[in-house]
Amino acid sequence: MKVIVTGCNGLVGSALVRQCIANPAISHVFALTRKPLPEAVTNSPKATVIEHDDFSAYPPELLARLAGAEGCLWAIGGRAPQFPDVETARKVHVEYTQAAAKAFLGHLVPQLPEGKQFRFVFCSGALAEWDQQKPLYFMADTRRIKGETERGLCEIADGDATKRFAVYCARPSGILPADAGVARKLSGRLFNAIGVDQLAKAMVRILLEGYKERIIENSELQKL
């Protein structure tokens, strides 16, 4: 399988690229990135690094380079306070993610062999909330934005008459880097954090095999 990975310089995205390169079921990785990637990626015969500045637009020449991809691991995003303001966070999550999903549905799905399905796996977050009017008392902006992104992706998939575009939303409750120290690991237990490599392996497995539900909670990710 050929796959697209985004957020390749981030904690989750970089782990996804590593897992894809190491997985024999994945034949090629299109690493879609704004910034240069490490030599371990650029030198891999399984990876094509594509630098792309505007993740709200997918021109024909870019889509041509992604031809043959059967899935996408989307790891662009984060918590709302990590962005300059809430509107920027919403733009990055909602606008960028949905623009990609629509472009892949419109241009990559029709190129797939008969019977093949394109799987779009979005790295969301625990307690993501679809109801934008519901009162929330902690992490409200982050949860609403993640929920709005999930809902939009699912609506795009539901609108596909061919049913060949599938969406999955992974909801880690917290993510521990591979080099997390003892103190961080202990604090991570308070919210049942998942290791980044474990999360990446779970998302790759969902990409390859699909899953019984669209929304995959943290407890299920830890079992994959």
Description of the structure:
There is one protein chain. The strands form two sheets. The protein has a seven-stranded parallel sheet, with helices on both faces. A two-stranded parallel ribbon has the order 7-8. Helix 2 (39-42) links the parallel strand 2 (28-33) and strand 3 (47-51). Helix 1 (11-22) crosses helix 7 and helix 4 (86-107) runs parallel beside helix 5. Helices cover 39% and strands 19% of the residues. It has 224 residues and is α/β, with parallel strands linked by helices. It has one domain (2-221): Rossmann fold.
Helix content range: 25-40%
Radius of gyration from CA coordinates: 17 Å
Can you tell me the CATH architecture? 3-Layer(aba) Sandwich
The CATH topology is what?
Rossmann fold
Number of helices: 8
**Uncertain segments of ≥5 residues (pLDDT<50)?**
none
The number of domains is 1
InterPro entries: NAD(P)-bd_dom_sf
Organism: Thermothielavioides terrestris (strain ATCC 38088 / NRRL 8126) (Thielavia terrestris)
Protein name: NAD(P)-binding domain-containing protein
What are the defining features of this structure?
224 residues, alpha/beta, Rossmann fold, seven-stranded parallel β-sheet, two-stranded parallel ribbon, 8 helices, 9 strands, 19% strand
